[in-house]
């Protein structure tokens, strides 16, 4: 299907067009495609989605260089270089041009995870475990240089690999690439104004109010209501004066707040709203008012009365009927009460609680047990702790050490397990049960799933050293069963060197 035809069908569906009849598009398609947290309704942006799909193809060519398609494309298009440096000759196919067009998106969303340093070998000196500081200072900022120096280098033989920054497991996903492209395109990250917008939009969508009310408030704040001013601005032959009070131009702000008929309703409502200084726009008023709401349900009540003002205006314009404001106020509160009652659901019966062992358990006979933990304090300093006990509970080895740099929690847990395994092996222990109180990391070790993150480098080293044991298994233990290792890790944070 051609792109133009697809766009036409999509827009006709949204605006409700019938035959030759055309309805007004009061809010641009670009704004509707924005995420809900940015004032849109989350409709799919075709261009951004297409770039995300192309980025997936480019990712597969990079991460699976031995695949049939990647081999053919490399032999034809970039036999003496890599895909990052590949040129785009004039006779290139449309498909190849499209794939290469998203390299910037892929570069900005990926990072290299260092394994055997095959990719960054030029940044290393001949001296062992030493970076070429002159080269790095030219290429990187001081903050990036410190981060590079704190990188965990693999101890086993493993290649460097690409990691996608916007997924925890580091694997590229079209969905995360699409959201990243939308954020880059519409600038939904950064300034305080954008944060204010995000806060208010989230406040609207998370409100306990009917969906049609939320949608009406969204349209009002986006200036997407069919007021007389908006109709006149789009070439409709109407007068700009408010049809209800005739005292001013009917903008969205006038209709919602300053119209004489609306002020009566606001005064009778539980909000008891009286405005002396009019805000510059409806968004500013909604943001300020929502921030000042201290009473429960006051924001939902405000949204309901905004919806009621709109309904009363429509009844006057189309039916020439004036609604009694006292009756309108009563019906609005009844409607909100009915909605809240309908939203109440009986709590589902809670499943029987699973009994969790709350005490350290000794390993099976002839085995030793290694407990590890990592902890981080408010200054983001990390400490590792480990303790090894035999089958009667006697402590064989206990140790703790601090580590430099800011790292994710799961990576710190991996460092703790590797730290404990090294000491167990050096002490001559060969049959070991390993317990960690990080459930996600325990599941990762048990399933042997692969991630494309720096944690995977440490996991590979863990599996490499585990193969040197006669027996080695990994299990989860609750924090109460892991108190000794946890306390050692907490003490290690404040040390300059390892304790044993």
From TrEMBL:
Signal peptide positions on this chain: none
> Sorted alphabetically, which Gene3D superfamilies does this protein's record hold?
Ribonuclease H-like superfamily/Ribonuclease H
- Output the CDD domains linked to this UniProt entry: RNase_H_like
Q: Where is the Reverse transcriptase zinc-binding domain?
A: 174-266
Q: Which domain of life is it from?
A: Eukaryota
Q: Which SUPFAM superfamilies match?
A: Ribonuclease H-like (SSF53098)
Residue intervals of the RNase H type-1 domain: 371-492
Give the Gene Ontology MF terms in alphabetical order: nucleic acid binding; RNA-DNA hybrid ribonuclease activity
Output this protein's name. RNase H type-1 domain-containing protein
